[in-house]
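yo

u said u wanted the structure for the complex thing, so here. seqs first:
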Amino acid sequence: MTDILNYCYTSLTKANVDKFQCVLTKSTLYEMNMEGNDFSLIRTTIDNKINITVIKDRRKADISLNRINERAIEEAIKTVIELSNTSQQDPDYDISPKQEAQQFTSGPDKPDTERMYSLLKEFIKKVSASYPMILLSETVFSHNHSLTHFINSNSVDFSINKGIYRFYSLFSSKDADKTSSFNYSGFSLKNLQGELLEHGSLNELLGQSVEHLHAQTIQGKFIGDVIITPDCLDDLLQSYIATYLGDRALITGLSLFKDKLGQMIAHPKLTLHSKPLSPEVDDGYFITSDGFAAEDITIIDKGILRSFMISLYGANKTNLERAKNSGGNFIIEPGDKNFGEMVSTVKKGILFARYSGGMPSANGDFSGVAKNSYFIEDGKIKYPVTEVMVSGNLAKLFKNIVEISKERINFGTSIYPYIQTNGVTISGK
Amino acid sequence: MKVKNLNQYSSYLSRYTELRFQENHTMSIAFLKGNLVQNYKNSTSGVSARVYSNGSWGFASSPDTDNVKYVIEAATQNATFLDVREKKSTTAFTADNPKSEKDFGTKKTRYTQNEIMDFIQGLDSYIELKYPDLNSRTVVLNCLDMEKSLLTSDGAALYSLIPRSYFRFSLSMDKGSGPVEAYDTAGGLGQFEDNFSAPDKLFGTIDNLYEHLAKKNEGIYASAGPKVCALDSELAGILAHEAIGHTAEADLVLGGSVAADYLGKESASSLVSLVDFAHTYEGKDCPVPIHIDDEGTKTEDMVIIDKGILKGYMHNKKSAQHFGVKPTGNARAYEYFDEPLIRMRNTAILPGESKLSDMISSIDDGYYLIKPSNGQADTTSEFMFGVVLGYEVKGGKLGRALKDLTISGVAFDVLKSVTMISDDMTWSNTGMCGKKQLIPVGLGGPAIKCKINIGGR
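structre next:
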């Protein structure tokens, strides 16, 4: 790898570009695939990827390719310089400044294929025994290994060796002519400890899928409480960040929070971190895509906005401070009520388990279907629901938080509790 | 790439094997409020092999196309790993060896990078100068060339170059009551030179988009609940693809899709016929023309619903064997390192005999819905689509524009409620379908009148 990057460094230096960065990644994937209860395919791939970014005369371009011989790289450098020559000038293009060289390592280099196979066998056996009405549609269990080397013309030099196991399963339930909506979940693991059903929320979701064979519709429309499940929270949170705190929202000026740094934007019970380096998170990362060593940060501290989630370019463009990482690996601090106590306080609402919805509007209005969800009334979960729509506003959703649960689920990528909030329009038939 | 013929490797293929060389080229250029935020090219190429051993598949790939022997051996090892443990003893596929060579690349002189950038800047400048009241604007060009060569141990052979290029325009406005956005796309099958001759040819699309946005800015929220609606072609297309098409993919049928219960039964209004076209519609190339799929099967049109009756499912070789039917040529892979999955190609409801104007006139209290943002559906055919452009219909006349809304329903029920289908057909070729991998798909359709749930305030 070093030879190739040295070649890039030398060639780009000779090409008289003002600034450049090169990222070389060599990855291997070992993946077991299942259709239904059958092992259908084992897939092994090796791939390379080199990304080259150049800035010349305040003009910028990027190229990536997976052929890493000298001839291909020479051609790519010629192309990316040609591409940058056609770019408009922008003083805000930049690369990361000099930082201390670092090497990072995480997880195993090689998969334990026999253990993966036996874990999957056991998974099928237990699902078949415990949930005979479950139909596993697609299950994928993989080991991903990557060697990444990042250099730039400011002498930044990072190398990362990362191995991670990832698992997800898509499933539904069927009983005679009754079919439940599909559901899915997954998780990441550095090491293959315990049974697959013990991780993430999988076991709970399989049980819920069977219950949804008897889903009912709700009549009419009301404004009620929702308890957002950890699986559902990820989708809503990603939309919240993109709508209000990301590059596009801030550069266009469309974000409702553009002037709210240091101010209260959410309920004081909400503390949201992004912690790619946390030992609690197996599937983290070490550097940002624009070449900074990643740091753990707090985005919202007791309801107060502490960081936008913008890149170096976004920060230069808006005169705001860049985020100290690339987002993701979200951890929400737990609350002091357990899930059962939260349910007991709901007069009328839903346990909101999956959001199937349109992209939120620029102001955060959202509207979609509450999939795999449950009707709650008078403090009790009454029955699973189907064809229920929810609409509301993302900013209000997190401002109106009532409680956050003690219980949290660690997906290996993020750690989420249940969040109870209100003011959501819930409509049935 | 231009490795059109893989016959030199035929002696390496002992068991049932698919050998594929593939290169994907992408280019993406994006201006956000006049700032060039993306100026990017990518090339990903390599070789893959998939080997079948007594009912178990093994797959391997390498970015180095000299590694043909390695990928075949690695794929064989993977298939053997499963075979010795699972011992499925499935019978072999029926041998078939169609051949096809299709190059949809431009025959025109390629534009220089400068010319392409000038073209895009011409569009961005047009918007900036003509519509100064906009809060923001986005102009994005996406180009993708997929070039594949395939050889199977049965002797099937394919070379194809299928390109797509399209613009996406997004405009936003805020007159004090919060930002409002609208978008449109232009382009489709073909490289840049074949789809775009001059910026001013696209000014009409932009002007039309601005007009809709201005109306949407003064728009209203839709009322929640079931409503009779006219769904324009893009929404009818996404309904056909997301909510019906996926349920009729044979792997999802085996996974419990509701379509398993509908085969041979009335599943839609007798006005509705729904087809996944392989490559040609009424003598013209479809948005994503597939002549031989990535398992080496000669493709054919798959009639999913014929006059309201569910007729069949989309298959790859393995699912066809399971159901005892012929494979339909729906096995497709996105990158060289991806295995073929059952995917739709060009899915559309067939045109009827009504006019869109008559359809709107016949609605007393409902909506005319035009443009989807995204869509999701599940194996029950329950779906959700975001709608970013639409109008209320009162007393048979178009009224105020609508702010963003979501529509939902159970697709087979919605298709049973169809009472009118327009006599025209519009295709779109900017969609990517996600199912483990991404894949370009074509969506099409006429407008349909049906009853649908509106998610509103």
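Chain A touches chain B through 82 residues (CB under 8 Å). The longest strand of chain A covers residues 38-56.
cya
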